[in-house]
Design a protein that fits this description.
The protein has 333 residues and is of the alpha/beta class. It has 15 helices and 12 strands.
Length: 333
Amino acid sequence: MPDGPCTAGFEDVYLVNDSVPEINIDHIDTSAGFLSKTLNYPLIINAITGGTENARRINRSLAKLARQYGLAMAVGSQTMAIHEPVLRDTFSVVRKENPDGLILANVSALSPVEQALEAVEMVKADGLQLHFNIPQELAMPEGDRDFAGMLENVARLVENSPVPIIAKEVGFGFSQEAARRLCGVGINYFDVGGKGGTNFVAIEDRREGWFVHEFDEWGIPTAVSLGELLALEYPITLIATGGIRTALDGVKALAVGASLIGMAGPLLKILVNEGEAVLQRYLQGFLYRLKAGLLMTGSRNIGELQQKPVIILGKTAQWLTIRGIDVKRWAAR
């Protein structure tokens, strides 16, 4: 699962140490409200897989951990199970393992309404991710080439969906311009899915994709995409995914203004290579470090964290500044 050669930009983001926080770590509140439910931690185990027996085992293990720690979870693209009902259990197992948890369905932004409704029903979803993956499609020899009418289709999905819709990029990041257009058709939730994590163009090129690695650096880094969309000052909710590999990355993303963070590749690698018990220990440590990050900034909860100063330097600051966004807005809190 290639990651390189780009970063998510969080190396340019700095938090200010509080030497006198006057906080007991046991009193830090990491809960986060999202859609209709409250999570114990602001973390989504993001869209990964489905459609095979191995994928069913993976989704079952991840759903058990989401239930244990009070996390949200999104399944991978459900298109294959819509076309082949025998595969539905590889996705619906998530709801069976976590009957009361927050679960997101997942289909393409080009999917017809009937398929979107079937995906929601399949996992009894609380929300629906619409994934936007145009560079990946263009790299695939068998991928889509026609994206005309996408906004109109998203508008239909928003109108007919029984649950809230989240626009999800898959590694190339949303720009302000794209977010404005999507807000115009009723999208209020964005998973920025920026550059810096799993590189789906590189994956396609490894299997004879048409981009022959010329576009491996394509996309908007996650920290930049997050800054662009926050600067719109629209009433939207942002999820930061794409290259969140450490708890510190997560604390930075939350401090900048994300409501939730999402991880996929790092969790999948541990589960597949080392097993469920090792992943459980990793999650315990990650969530402890997330709390520690809040404490070291003097924050008792995520709301307080988002009032603390954040210093943005380097290429991330340069990009945002050139785009007309004053990075001092974060530093002068």
